[in-house]
């Protein structure tokens, strides 16, 4: 019986552990070219190469690159069915195919070279395996036997095994300076003293692997053999539980374990010390984290100890044995419900409160769960054990429950007073519990009397009736977290409540009014989890608050639970993962689903620390882990530059092999992609282009960066990735040289100076010569002119009369033109929206409109369509009468786009307006290239917020939020004819209270003025708006107008001015 129980316990533990092993799978959905993976290798750079039945794949941790046969390209791979892969000592990738022979890929030149039957390979049908040894590549084929390729003369030579060159070679391995080959004729062959010797001729060997100075053989029928001490004899290992499934792959990890990939039996873990079967991992359709298929064709351990598993139809799987820090339990493990709300450890047992599954009891010795059915409540929010060993359960719907673990009797307490209890603690034999809506309650266990503390208008009352968390102090008083009125302190001895502010306006307040958890450390400092304000820290000595939020790298600002481990690290559960905060160095390490967490979402109150272990519950069960074992990554990995594009085209040769590059002066648009060679979790990136960037660009999980408009110069691109912890100085560098064009070089400037000086000298000599000649000619001319002057005096009187007549005609025409222009001004004013209409739809707004002339090319436009308000600031080509004529056409185009075509999306309006304007101008017999720059906004209000959509032609949108100016750039094209027109882009923003929006033409920033007569410029305009943004819109308009006139001074206004500002 005892042996039977041990067997049951072993099988139970095995099952539970196998469920907790989390495999990350990649298939076609994730970018793999095909789901049957025949072979896997890792190259010298750390990239993973995967051979499938439909193409070769390269994986850099972010994306798959596919290599396939190109039927019009003899330099591509010869066939898409990849059977075998290896990397030689020079870094070339050897690719064995099904039906196409061999291809050799040179990653430095990004090129393929084919070897097939024309190179004397006996069979180019199926290439089974490769192995490099002593300046040769050994090649195993299915029907062409074993061959060697000599690197020096590039000749392929067949090798006879069993007097046969037509046999199938399944695997090749080099061990102890000897080549071993497994064949279809049975057994293995090894090369000794110029002779091939055969062993185990009756056993079908599928794979060969060396480990711990031993050679292992995996058989077609599940046998496992190990070499003896002389390396040429093999003993069959008797492993209990090993079945007859063929062993197709063997690898060893960093913890002295063997991993066997079987044909139908899943993945097996073997203890490499005593060769016992430790675990079996098989596909479970109910567990998305299980291995994807039980037929395993290939297996690889990468340089960091990660295990890659290729399957038949299930894609490729990955996991890292050394990174299994978080044990995961859920309903598959036996938990009654996956939503976990609370924990309590009692010796070898763990009580677990669930949301819908009642109270569970987990036996840590047997790894088994049971549901305590005598507790009727199904939703257990909190569990507390008092000094008498009685459990007190806070429930939803059943109030407070008293549960005796010895008798199993449960009874409800005060459920008529409070039926929703969130937290419980005990002080001086009195229970204190917080409720939802029923305030704080003190319960005397001896007398069963209770005192209820409710919020009222009195100064000395609790601030809120919903209490989610309680924490007692060293002097037996209470910290109280309410859900709606912030933090309270309760002095039990005198029944006095003290409430704290919650707007974060000063260091004396929390930054959020919804408190979800409170932890009091050994120095009586508070660590407070809030619902939206992140983690608040209260320094008890200074009586000040500080805040740790997503700005400091907290994964989410909703903090459900807070505990402290024995290394003085604060652990918090959030709405998006688990976080460890080091009080010592103030660093943050975040963990998420990819690290083994039950889910990224955790639950209120479900964080518990006891006896070296932390329990964290969420919506998919709970995790158990030892915080000492969860360390930051110590891998000696690096960040690789996997791709670089110059002006949108891929840079060749591959950039990952280069330390520096030289580009031409026109190469001013560069795109980079990075990969931190760590496949075990999400990676964060940062980069900095020295010579262009002042500071690091923190890219979060984005692994690419673009640079535009780079001037010529010498740059150093520094790039770095990390998985967790703080940034260090181990970054990679690419040096980039962009030389200037020849006309901007020093030697060209010198040449120009020499030519200019030579030109001046030549000009001076010729001028002197011409001057002498001219003096002589002038003397003759003077004489002739004297005679002519007399005659001209006679005609001057007649001309005077003619001039006076022309003056009268000119003044008449000027009056007529001025009248026409004034009439045009009235027409243009008529198409502009009135101040009344603008203030009707945008009460807090202004329009600063200053035409340069009587009529203008700038105009502002407004339209109401359905529930959307449309407003624009436009700048048509030119100013004065020409600009005004264009503005009429463009204004009409906007009206038609909205009224006739029913468009409300800014980008669609601009696209249609451009179409209309071009059509109007094409009616002219002469080519018209006039057009319009514009910034167009659409404003809609939903239930909570204003939604702003924007599209622009050359004119940007500025939003000022607090002290920050957010600029959204327009498409670099006008409304009109353009050589490379594209569709306009629409940008959408959810506006926040007090956001102020500005759109404008270029007249204000381009105005000359100031002491030096320079342009006002956009930078000064931004600074001015940031300075006045807090004022009313009318005050802003007056300040802008005054600033413009002051800057312009006596200079002429050079262009029309239109500035629109509004606040919603």
TrEMBL record:
<dbReference type="Pfam" id="PF07494">
    <property type="entry name" value="Reg_prop"/>
</dbReference>
<dbReference type="InterPro" id="IPR015943">
    <property type="entry name" value="WD40/YVTN_repeat-like_dom_sf"/>
</dbReference>
<keyword id="KW-0472">Membrane</keyword>
<dbReference type="InterPro" id="IPR011123">
    <property type="entry name" value="Y_Y_Y"/>
</dbReference>
<feature type="transmembrane region" description="Helical">
    <location>
        <begin position="746"/>
        <end position="766"/>
    </location>
</feature>
<keyword id="KW-0597">Phosphoprotein</keyword>
<keyword id="KW-0175">Coiled coil</keyword>
<dbReference type="Pfam" id="PF07228">
    <property type="entry name" value="SpoIIE"/>
</dbReference>
<dbReference type="InterPro" id="IPR001932">
    <property type="entry name" value="PPM-type_phosphatase-like_dom"/>
</dbReference>
<dbReference type="GO" id="GO:0000155">
    <property type="term" value="F:phosphorelay sensor kinase activity"/>
</dbReference>
<keyword id="KW-0812">Transmembrane</keyword>
<feature type="domain" description="PPM-type phosphatase">
    <location>
        <begin position="844"/>
        <end position="1064"/>
    </location>
</feature>
<feature type="coiled-coil region">
    <location>
        <begin position="782"/>
        <end position="813"/>
    </location>
</feature>
<dbReference type="InterPro" id="IPR036457">
    <property type="entry name" value="PPM-type-like_dom_sf"/>
</dbReference>
<dbReference type="InterPro" id="IPR013783">
    <property type="entry name" value="Ig-like_fold"/>
</dbReference>
<protein>
    <submittedName>
        <fullName>SpoIIE family protein phosphatase</fullName>
    </submittedName>
</protein>
<keyword id="KW-1133">Transmembrane helix</keyword>
<dbReference type="Pfam" id="PF07495">
    <property type="entry name" value="Y_Y_Y"/>
</dbReference>
<dbReference type="InterPro" id="IPR011110">
    <property type="entry name" value="Reg_prop"/>
</dbReference>
């Amino acid at each position: 019986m005892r042996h039977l129980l041990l067997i049951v316990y072993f099988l139970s533990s095995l099952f539970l552990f196998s469920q907790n092993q989390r495999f990350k799978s990649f298939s076609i959905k994730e970018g793999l070219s095909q789901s049957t993976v025949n072979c896997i290798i890792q190259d010298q750079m750390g990239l993973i190469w995967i051979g499938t039945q439909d193409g070769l794949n390269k994986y850099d941790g972010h994306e798959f690159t596919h290599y396939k046969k190109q039927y019009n390209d003899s330099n591509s791979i010869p066939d898409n069915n990849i059977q075998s892969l290896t990397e030689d000592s020079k870094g070339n990738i050897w690719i064995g195919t099904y039906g196409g022979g061999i291809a050799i890929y040179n990653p430095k030149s990004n090129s393929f070279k084919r070897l097939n039957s024309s190179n004397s390979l006996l069979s180019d049908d199926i290439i089974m395996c490769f192995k490099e040894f002593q300046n040769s590549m050994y090649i195993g084929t299915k029907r062409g036997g074993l061959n060697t390729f000599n690197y020096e003369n590039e000749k392929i030579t067949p090798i006879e095994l069993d007097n046969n060159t037509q046999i199938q070679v399944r695997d090749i391995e080099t061990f102890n300076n000897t080549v071993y080959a497994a064949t279809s004729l049975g057994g293995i062959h090894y090369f000794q003293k110029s002779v091939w010797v055969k062993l185990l001729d009756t056993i079908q060997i599928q794979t060969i692997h060396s480990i711990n100075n031993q050679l292992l053989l995996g058989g077609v029928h599940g046998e496992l053999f190990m070499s003896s001490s002389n390396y040429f004899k093999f003993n069959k290992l008797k492993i209990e539980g090993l079945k007859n499934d063929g062993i197709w792959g063997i690898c060893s990890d960093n913890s002295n374990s063997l991993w066997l990939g079987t044909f139908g039996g899943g993945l097996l873990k073997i203890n490499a010390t005593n060769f016992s079967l430790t675990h079996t991992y098989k596909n479970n359709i109910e567990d998305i984290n299980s291995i994807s298929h039980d037929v395993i064709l290939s297996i690889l351990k990468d340089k960091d100890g990660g295990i890659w598993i290729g399957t038949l139809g299930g894609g490729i799987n990955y996991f890292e044995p050394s990174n299994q820090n978080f044990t995961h339990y859920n309903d598959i493990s036996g938990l009654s419900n996956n939503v976990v709300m609370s924990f309590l450890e009692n010796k070898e047992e763990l009580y677990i409160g669930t949301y819908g599954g009642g109270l569970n009891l987990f036996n840590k010795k047997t790894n088994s769960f049971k549901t305590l059915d005598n507790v009727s409540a199904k939703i257990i929010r909190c569990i507390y054990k008092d000094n008498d060993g009685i459990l007190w359960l806070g429930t939803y719907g059943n109030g407070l429950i008293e549960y005796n673990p010895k008798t199993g009797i449960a009874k409800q307490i005060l459920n008529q007073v409070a039926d929703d209890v969130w937290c419980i603690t005990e002080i001086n034999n009195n229970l204190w519990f917080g409720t939802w809506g029923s305030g704080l309650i003190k319960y005397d266990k001896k007398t069963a009397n209770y005192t209820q503390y409710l919020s009222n208008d009195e100064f000395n009352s609790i601030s809120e009736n919903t209490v989610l968390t309680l924490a007692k102090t060293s002097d037996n008083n209470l910290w109280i977290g309410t859900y709606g009125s912030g933090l309270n302190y309760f002095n039990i001895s005198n029944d006095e409540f003290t409430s704290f502010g919650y707007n974060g306006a000063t260091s004396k307040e929390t930054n959020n009014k919804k408190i979800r958890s409170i932890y009091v450390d050994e120095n009586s400092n508070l660590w407070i989890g809030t619902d939206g304000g992140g983690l608040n820290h209260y320094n008890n000595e200074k009586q000040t608050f500080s805040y740790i939020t997503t700005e400091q790298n907290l994964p989410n600002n909703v903090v459900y639970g807070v505990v402290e481990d024995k290394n003085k690290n604060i652990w918090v559960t959030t709405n998006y993962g688990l976080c460890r905060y080091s009080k010592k160095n103030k660093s943050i390490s975040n963990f998420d689903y990819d690290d083994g967490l039950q889910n990224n979402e955790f639950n209120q109150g479900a964080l518990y620390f006891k006896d070296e272990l932390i329990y964290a519950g969420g919506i998919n069960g709970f995790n158990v882990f030892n915080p000492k074992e969860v360390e930051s990554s110590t891998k000696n990995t690096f960040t690789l530059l996997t791709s670089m594009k110059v002006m949108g085209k891929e840079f060749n040769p591959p950039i990952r092999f280069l330390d520096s590059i030289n580009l031409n002066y026109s190469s001013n648009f560069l795109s980079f992609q990075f990969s931190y060679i760590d496949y075990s979790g999400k990676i964060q990136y940062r980069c900095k282009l020295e010579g262009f960037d002042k500071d690091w660009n923190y890219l979060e999980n984005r692994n690419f960066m673009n640079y535009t408009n780079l001037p010529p110069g010498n740059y150093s691109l520094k790039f770095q990735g990390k998985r967790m912890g703080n940034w260090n100085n181990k970054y990679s560098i690419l040096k980039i040289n962009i030389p200037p064009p020849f006309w901007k070089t020093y030697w060209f400037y010198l040449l120009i100076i020499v030519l200019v000086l030579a030109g001046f000298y030549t000009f001076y000599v010729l001028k002197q010569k011409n001057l002498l000649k001219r003096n002589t000619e002038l003397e003759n001319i003077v004489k002739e002119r004297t005679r002519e002057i007399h005659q001209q005096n006679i005609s001057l009187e007649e001309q005077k009369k003619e001039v006076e007549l022309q003056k009268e005609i000119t003044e008449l025409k000027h009056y007529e033109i001025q009248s026409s222009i004034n009439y045009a001004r009235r027409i243009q004013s008529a198409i502009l929206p009135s101040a009344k209409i603008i203030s009707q739809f945008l009460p807090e707004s202004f329009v600063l409109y200053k035409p340069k002339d009587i009529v203008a090319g700038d105009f502002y436009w407004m339209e109401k369509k359905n529930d959307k308000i449309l407003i624009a600031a436009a700048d048509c080509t030119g100013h004065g009468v020409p600009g005004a004529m264009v503005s009429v056409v463009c204004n009409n185009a906007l009206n038609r786009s909205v009224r006739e075509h029913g468009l409300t999306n800014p980008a669609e309006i601009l696209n249609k307006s451009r179409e209309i304007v071009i059509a109007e101008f094409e009616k002219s017999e002469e080519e018209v290239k006039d057009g319009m720059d514009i910034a167009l906004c659409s404003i809609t209000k939903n239930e909570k917020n204003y939604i702003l959509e924007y599209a622009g032609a050359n004119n940007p949108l500025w939003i000022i939020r607090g002290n920050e100016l957010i600029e959204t750039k327009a498409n670099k094209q006008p409304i009109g004819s353009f050589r490379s027109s594209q569709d306009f882009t629409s940008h959408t923003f959810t506006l926040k209270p007090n956001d102020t929006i500005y759109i404008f033409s270029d007249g204000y920033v381009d105005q000359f003025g100031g002491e030096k007569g320079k342009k006002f410029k956009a930078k000064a305009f931004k600074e001015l708006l940031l300075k006045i943004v807090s004022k009313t819109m009318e005050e802003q308009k007056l300040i802008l107008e005054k600033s413009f006139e002051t800057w312009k001074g006596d200079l002429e206004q050079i262009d029309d001015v239109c500035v629109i500002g509004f606040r919603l």
